[in-house]
Amino acid sequence: MTTRILVCDDEPDILDLVRLSLSEAGFAVETASCGQEALDKLRRAAPDLAVLDLMLPDMSGTEVCRFIRTRPELADVLVLMLTAKGEEVDRIVGFELGADDYVTKPFSPRELVLRVRALLRRRAGAGGERNLLERDAVRVDLDRHRCFVEGEEVGLTAKEFQLLSTLMRRPGRVLTRERLLEEIWGSDVTVTMRTIDTHLKRLREKLGKGGDLIETVRGVGYRFTE
What we know:
By secondary structure, this protein is α/β, with parallel strands linked by helices. It folds into two domains: 4-125, Rossmann fold, CATH 3.40.50.2300; 132-224, Arc Repressor Mutant, subunit A (Orthogonal Bundle), CATH 1.10.10. 41% of the residues lie in helices and 22% in strands. The protein is built from eight helices and twelve strands. The chain has a five-stranded parallel sheet with strand order 2-1-3-4-5, sandwiched between helices. A four-stranded antiparallel sheet has the order 6-7-8-9, with helices on one face. A three-stranded antiparallel sheet has the order 10-12-11. It starts with a strand and ends with a strand.
């Protein structure tokens, strides 16, 4: 099957250049000129990879990236950030939200195609690992939205499943309560930091022995043991 790529950029010349370069490389390319259009197309069908400009007229590319990373049905979508900004802080924000790679404008179309192919090869080489997270007794099947501990299925709520998969995707890395709240609950202003602790407590209880793999970093947040 042809690899599908969604490109989101508000500059027509850049959008056409990226579309043409990727199309000539054999990819099926769909475009969006603003964040909302990208979100609408992501909701309709998940692409294999999204190329997102950081600066969009209605929202930032990082917001679109956050949307992708908080939707289980978009868990397999690779994200490449494309931006005129080269400062380290912008790259860090993108990677913290789950971006897979980062290309700075001005860029070489050939380099962009090579980066895209490298990301796709990396995922193919990982086999099913991207869709199956496993650590000791805990196994999470992202495609089927199921969790197992020592071979026995554990029933999790949607938010518990998102919390667990978010932590397991970044083993050894501390995620602050603010980051978890932002990634999983988004703009829901009715949710407080205490909500994170409550959900983590219930999640640990449901995981039994597997719950010990989720560590509390006092005063900071949580991490899944490396």
